[in-house]
TrEMBL record:
Ranges where the FAD-binding FR-type domain occurs: 10-111
Protein name: Oxidoreductase
Record keywords: 2Fe-2S, Iron, Iron-sulfur, Metal-binding
Entry-linked Pfam families: FAD_binding_6, NAD_binding_1
Cofactor(s) this protein cannot do without: FAD
InterPro entries associated with the record: Cbr1-like_FAD-bd_dom, FAD-bd_FR_type, Flavoprot_Pyr_Nucl_cyt_Rdtase, FNR_nucleotide-bd, MRET, OxRdtase_FAD/NAD-bd, Riboflavin_synthase-like_b-brl
Species: Actinocatenispora sera
Gene Ontology MF annotations: 2 iron, 2 sulfur cluster binding; oxidoreductase activity
Length: 248
């Protein structure tokens, strides 16, 4: 109901692809020129609409990877091999192409620089995308709110924004923990295995500190993580979730 009401005020606009850059083998960032972009909050997403020559249309949601203060709008898309839209966005899109956008959408899964409480961000796979916007905004606004990021990826090569996250990890007030679930490179000092109660207990703020908690990724990951956090005593009302679909 709320989403319908909000979307009613939004219209489709064309954006031109300025650049496509590889984040990993399966994930590309798409830099867009979106004239008259109204601005967004870190954590919001857009709807992307593609139209084939025969008029067939497909539409999917993508989190905004750029911070509100960044000059350009960036989306980051992971290719699902059996997917309809993501293989096109990752493999076929070129500078100069135009896509349709609607947004920004969503007022719930957002982080504002005025949020002063500690924040825990838990990402699975491409669920890191909205958190990149939040972390960039945190830096741009020189926020003093402490943030802990726990990011689960299958392998080191599949860690999206790897260099940027390693730089962020060196900044005061930001802790970055990465867990690799399938394989680890020699000398890996991060965590291994899936996000579970034990890892969350180790990495997260204690519930008594009333952190704001954000969980984003595939549906199964989000549900298991949110349940584990509630089991640890976190207030369900302070856990915001964004489900990207799928079950893994
Ligand atoms: C609010 C929101 C924000 C999103 N932000 C991003 C983003 O920033 N980057 C990004 O890459 N994706 C994001 N997604 C997911 C995106 O909308 C698409 O679902 C995804 O790109 C797959 O689309 P597709 O057409 O390629 O696959 P489809 O043809 O729709 O699906 C193919 C198969 O993959 C499964 N599937 C669908 N989505 C996922 C998934 N996320 N993980 C695992 N399996 C899945 C389906 O059940 C189906 O079996 C977001 C989704 C939502 C709701």
């Amino acid at each position: 109901m709320e989403r319908t009401a909000v979307l009613g005020r939004l219209s489709w606009r064309f954006a031109t692809v300025l650049e496509v850059t590889a984040e990993t083998d399966q994930t590309h960032s798409i830099v867009l020129d979106a004239p008259d972009w109204p601005g967004h909050l870190a954590g919001q997403h857009v709807d992307v609409r593609l139209t084939a020559d025969d008029g067939y249309q497909a539409q999917r949601s993508y989190s905004i990877a750029s911070a509100p203060s960044d000059e350009q709008l960036v989306l980051t898309v992971e290719r699902l091999d059996d997917g309809e839209v993501s293989p096109y966005l990752v493999d076929e899109l070129r500078a100069g192409d135009r896509i349709e956008l609607r947004g920004p959408v969503g007022g719930y899964f957002v982080w504002r620089p005025t949020d002063a409480v500690p924040a825990l961000l838990v990402a699975g796979g491409s669920g890191i995308v909205p958190f990149r916007a939040m972390l960039r905004e945190h830096g741009a606004a020189m926020s003093a709110a402490p943030i802990r990021l726990l990011y689960s990826a299958r392998t080191f090569d599949q860690v999206i924004y790897r260099e940027e996250l390693l730089r962020l990890a060196a900044r005061d007030g930001i802790d970055v923990s990465i867990t690799l679930t399938r394989a680890q490179p020699a000398g890996w000092h991060g965590y291994t295995g899936r996000v579970d109660t034990a890892l969350l207990r180790q990495v997260s703020w204690p519930p008594e500190e009333h952190p704001a908690v954000y969980v984003c990724g595939p549906t199964g990951f989000v549900e298991a993580t949110a349940n584990a956090l509630v089991g640890l005593g976190h207030d369900p009302g302070r856990i915001r979730t964004e489900r990207f679909g799928g079950t893994s």
